[in-house]
Amino acid sequence: MEAARALTAVATVGQSSDKALAAFQESPNRAAVRAIVLGSLRWYLRLAPALDALFDRPGQVAPEVRALLIASAHQIEYSRNAPELTVHLAVEAARLLGRHGAAGLVNAVLRRFVSERQTLLQVVDANLAGRTAHPAWLVAEIERSWADEAEMILDGANQHPPLVLRVDLTRSTVPQYLEVLTRTGIRGRALAWASAALELDRPVAVAALPGFDEGLVSVQDAGAQLAAQLLGARSGMRVLDACAAPGGKTGHILEHTSGLAELVALDVDAARSERIRENLERLSRQATLVVGDIRTPSAFWDGRPFDRILVDAPCSSTGVIRRHPDIKLLRRPEDMANFSHLQLDILRAAFGMLATEGRLLYCTCSVLPAENEEVIERFLKSEPRARLLPMPPAVCLPPGSRMRVVGMQLLPGAQAGTDGFYYAGLEKTAVGT
Q1: Looking at residue 27, what is its pLDDT?
Q2: I need a labelling partner for 133 at 20 to 30 A (CA). Which of 118, 204, 288, 391 fits?
């Protein structure tokens, strides 16, 4: 019942899965609800068409009943639960939802799904969008951009993400922390190309991680951990983290580079800025927190240029679908143009605050060139003082990194096992050079 309500909030109301699941945070079933909802969202666009084939008018099914059917179909197809038990529980859930009249419908439809699902899903799986449970427009965009790697990206987006940690190397080492984990019965492995990263064999609650509350470790994908290294800040520099919430990269920059003159963590949202403060407090690190819109520097900037600027730009988040499968339902084709305009505006404003010979690192968690290299290409054409930088040779890049004409791309499903990220470095030159 709770899973059906949360799924309805995402699929029908348009809430994020985080917001929808927050309503059930105090439920004794919250772990099961979360697993069912995220799994159902991951495979929603494969299961929904299969169920729709069992109705004459699928659009007339009440949203909560439809969500209940999809959540139940997920349990039948992807869990170890006995299908008969799932059907029985779904009928009871219909009644608990107050849909007494739909109990018979739920029973009949799910029983047919149990017996016919192989044929039903075979029809859906005839095209790549159905088989990988992605919207057709996104599949077409990924195929256009990554013809030979489209299936790898789409399949990678359906994998359960690993739990990757970042060790504060000023306080410990990865081998030392692995020993601590082993003593508590948690197993993991170091990543050869990421100096502060380790990946757990299986995810655990952060409360179970030794030293987490004291800031010894943080949860951060290994691909995201490249940002602090690629930024290349040094002692004595002023640094701006331009879209900083929730503060993961802010904290890593402070861990990675001692003796900064100042790090300003800027975000447009006051509530999200509070998340930065909380994260820095856990890490025992300090930064200047500013709530403001990067596109209007006059509202918050004192005019002193920054030596390094990180622009972790708002984007479609198509590189982190495996962590946020609701993206499949919430994104629309027109979002890409809106994001690219926003990204270019942010990039121009941030570059205006950069010191001459200063460096800016642009990154997104998108796999779409329209939000990545195409934004950088447009910016370079319009800004004569901007120079594209190569990836620093001292930074060890993940295996399978795709070097683009402009910047570098990490892809879901690739050898390194990271989320999808894009990085490009820019330098501000003197006028006329």
Answers
A1: 87
A2: 204
Distance CA 321, CA 126 (A): 22
Q: How far is CA 312 from CA 26, 249, 257, 367, 370, in A?
A: 33, 9, 18, 14, 15
Q: How far is CA 220 from the centre of its chain?
A: 11
Does 432 have pLDDT greater than 60?
Answer: no
Q: Is the pLDDT of residue 433 over 60?
A: no
CA dist list (Å): 120 to 69, 144, 400: 15, 28, 36
pLDDT at residue 363 greater than cutoff 60: yes
Answer yes or no: 363 catalytic.
Answer: no
Choosing from 243, 315, 363, 365, which is the catalytic residue?
Answer: 365
Rg from Cα positions in the chain? 23
Give yes or no for a contact between 386 and 332, defined as CB atoms under 8 angstroms apart.
no
pLDDT by residue (tens digit) across 136-192? Answer: 999 999 999 999 999 999 999 999 999 999 999 999 999 999 999 999 999 999 999
- The answer, as to whether pTM is greater than 0.85, is yes
Question: Which tokens hold the place of 241?
Answer: 């983290």
CB atoms within 10 A of CB 78: 14
Strand partners, 306: 354
Q: Is the separation of the CB atoms in 68 and 87 below 8 Å?
A: no
Q: How far apart are CA 153 and CA 158, in angstroms?
A: 9
Kindly report, residue by residue over 92-132, the tens digit of the pLDDT: 999 988 877 889 999 999 999 999 999 999 999 999 999 99
Alpha helices in 212-371 (DSSP H): 226-231, 248-256, 270-283, 327-330, 335-352
Which residue type sits at 413? G
| Strands 197-200 and 217-219, sheet pairing | unpaired
**Token reading at 362:** 């642009």
Distances (CA, A) of 258 to 106, 155, 175: 60, 40, 22
Q: Is 128 helix (H, G, I), strand (E, B) or coil?
A: helix
C-alpha angle with apex 386: 380 to 390, nearest 5 degrees?
90
Per DSSP bridges, beta strands 164-167 and 188-190 are unpaired
